Amino acid sequence: MRPAVKLQHFRSLAMAVALVLSLPPPAHADVDVSLWDGSRAMAHIEAQLRFTPRSMDMPGHQRTIDYIKAELAKSGLTSVTTQDFVYRGTSKPLALFNIIARLNPENPRRVIVATHYDSIIRAYRDARNPQAAMPGANNSASGVALLLETARVLSASPQPPVGIDLIFFDGEEGPKSLGAGDPDWHPIGSPHFVEHLNDYYPNRKPDKAVDFDMVCKKDILLMPEASSVKAAPAEVKTFWELGAAIAPKAFSSKITYPISDDHTALNEAGIPSFLVIDFEYEPYFNTSQDTFDKCSAESLEAVGRTLLRYLYLP
Ligand SMILES: [Zn+2]
């Protein structure tokens, strides 16, 4: 009896193996990337533009925080916390809030998906009116839109193999909320986060991080950014290969000059991190012309669907 049972077991196991081998490989297990909807992401941009200016210390800043939290709650994300702190490097102290939403918090393998939600206080590069408000459709509403739509799809999909921390950083545009318009520009939110990394990762650092900024431009062309290639070469290669398969026109393999952003602090903390950005945004960059009509659902979809594929890699 026993050997027979064993033999029978072996035979059914062999059949199972044969069956598995005859099926196509589950290359991108369990995620339907077509669920990622560019028009929904566009609606998130439109909503944020109603709060402009969204720079620190302005009413629109708080309204943006409230909006992000409300949208995460709508997607059913329950593990959402705010890391709040005061920055005292300015004459008037600034209150900052990093928002952290965790999916599958029990999974020890963590991947950070980041963006920033603060925007600059005025359109300092505007030739006609440098005091005008900057709508910030691309810089910074597009990154927030990307993460919010990703949150919705993830919560409706089977669990990915990694735990994901969506982080909406504050203060990327620096203490004066002028971004590159301030010669002493430096992000504030992401360096604070990495200083307190143990609060979120007491046992094990995140495996990697990807940071998004300026990802909605029509006919987007994403090039690997030099500091990312240096810090996380394998991750950049993988992301760009997945992207080129989904949206060949949106991904170029030509490496561009180094750009500092929130991935910089994450890299300095020893987390292999890369930036996804289309920084070629003239003549609109940080002007009053960074408006909704410069964005497209197709561009957002190219980036969002690539991100989904990337998060479901084994
Ligand atoms: Zn930005």
What does this structure look like?
The protein is an alpha/beta fold. Strands 1-2-4-3-5-6 form a six-stranded mixed sheet, with helices on both faces. Helix 2 crosses helix 10, helix 3 runs parallel beside helix 4 and helix 8 (233-246) packs across helix 10 (297-311). The protein has helices spanning 2-22, 38-49, 59-74, 137-155, 189-195, 197-200, 226-231, 233-246, 262-268, 297-311, and strands at 80-87, 94-103, 110-116, 163-169, 208-213, 273-277. The chain starts with a helix and ends with a helix. Strand 3 (110-116), helix 4 and strand 4 form a beta-alpha-beta unit. Bound molecules: zinc ion. Zinc ion is lined by residues 116, 139-140, 172, 213-214.
Task: Give the topology, please.
Elements: H1 2-22, H2 38-49, H3 59-74, E1 80-87, E2 94-103, E3 110-116, H4 137-155, E4 163-169, H5 189-195, H6 197-200, E5 208-213, H7 226-231, H8 233-246, H9 262-268, E6 273-277, H10 297-311
Parallel strand pairs: 3-4, 3-5, 5-6
Antiparallel strand pairs: 1-2, 2-4
Helix pairs in contact: 2-4, 2-10, 3-4, 4-10, 5-9, 8-10
This protein binds zinc ion.
